[in-house]
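so the lab meeting is tmrw and i was supposed to have these ready like two days ago... anyway. pasting both below. for each one the top line is the aa sequence and the line under it is the structure tokens. i havent really looked at them closely yet so no promises
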Amino acid sequence: MDAANRAEEFRRRLDGAAEATEAALDALLAPTALPGEITRPARLLEAMRYSTLGGGKRLRPFLVIESARLFGVEGASALRTACALEMIHCYSLVHDDLPAMDDDDLRRGRPTAHKAFDEATAILSGDGLLTYAFDVVADPATHPDGALRAALVLALARAAGLGGMVGGQALDLAAEAAATPLDQAETLQMQAMKTGALLRFAVDAGAILGGATPQQAAALHRYGKALGAAFQIADDILDAEGDTAALGKRAGKDAERGKATLVALLGLDAARARCDALVNEATAALAETGLGERTEVLAEAARFVAARRS
């Protein structure tokens, strides 16, 4: 398959994953209470839906779906896991945008949750999405094997929590107030937690769902690690060079807040070179899975991450 056809197939699969995820999230966030729930408060549910539906590329769900597809796993198991991951991603954006954190007014081209509703409702909607994500993964509807579901829950908790995304956000906030800026190693560690951990989980989840061999799982983990690092550098470059209308969020905020980024540390040219090198690392890791042409769409995803403009 030539480069143009690979790019077209990637876009088709990305769009398909986004459409399937949107429909599944819409169903999961329906007004009807589940067994064990008492009721779903209308305003809280509205805020959860506002922050979750109708926006984003759904890259994380795509990665879950496509990494599981490598091993012939399709359908509810992969899609529900993808939805759970997207709920955690969306909750993190709601909380990151709060005045106590990044204090942003715009997300995906519209008011952030605390502006569209209020701070308390935004906080609770994030809490609801985080909790519901684990409900979805733990539900037998996701997979009949309880041990496999437990493995997914553990991996997701480790990626999202103290030693992952939440810890990375704490390090990022602490760095803004620190007397000295983070060095390169510290910045990479913080970014690997704040941004990279959920992207790594996406492909780790596919390996868990697909019963990957230890070698295949390790190779996919290396792919996810490199992809996550490339994604963050590309995001930092976009913040430095992009405009608010194209990004759908306020541009230039990293420099304003003195955030630790590789662009600030290395400059734009070196950051771009590092991003390209990470894409090469990601594609090399895929080759080590031994899955051949089946990995082409994931390789294209790494190239997309580095080249994106929003």
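ok protien two:
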Amino acid sequence: MAHAPIEPPPYFDALLERLAQGDPEATAALGRHVHWGYWSDPDAVPLTGADYAVAAEELCRRVCDAAPVRDGMRVLDVGCGFGGTIASLNERFKHLDMTGVNIDPRQLARAAETVTAINGNRTTWIEADACALPFANDQFDVVLAVECVFHFPSRATFLAEASRVLKPGGRLALSDFVPSAEGLDALRKHDIGGSETRASYGTVDVLCAEPEYRALAQSAGFTAPTFEDITPHTLPTYKFIRSTAARWQAIGADAYVRTTRRLEVSSRVGWLRYVILSAGLGL
């Protein structure tokens, strides 16, 4: 079924401008990864741009290790952003054939400029829709999607596409925001994903609870999906985002901060969980 064209989240406009200007904090924090961070001790961390980059790299590694990625694999990174996940794999593994997919040619251009293949690895960057992947069946050993699925028009379609392009026995690993059972109604009531969220973060759907997610994955052919809740370790992200919003966004900073606070409160009270999902494709 056709769907409306996907647009890059609005915050990329401000971020790309900061990066083009050579802003040192933006480059340190988000020049490689553009997603939440993971802190082993979330109560005792300074939040400089460099600190944030370390936490974002840790989250990336945890998603990749959930697959897990191994030397010699063919890996597809959907919603690849600036190529941070592929850059991380490039440094850690050998003889990988890695393809990054994104809808935004600006992000792909930065990825191509900043990621140089080493260790016998290969990298390819393709502008494409996550729900209509331009690949033949049975092409990849691993499909990754770090903190992007909530932007896609359909989780069901993406999961079906991931299943289609994976080889039999292949693995999927992703991170996503998943509501708790008790939080689902509360998130609807407080309009998480509403107009102010769309103006700040773009189209966002965080209303797919674990039972529905599990059913969608299994319907796409994935077996025994696991959900690892890492919410407590991601919470310092919100402080960093709020602290940078006013400096980086000349327009819409107040709405961006309000939206971020709603997401943070929802996470702290248990309505919204940050989850790493991993699953295998049946043989």
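from a quick look at the 2nd one: Residues 160 and 220 are 5 Å apart (CA to CA). DSSP finds twelve helices and seven strands in the chain. will dig more after coffe
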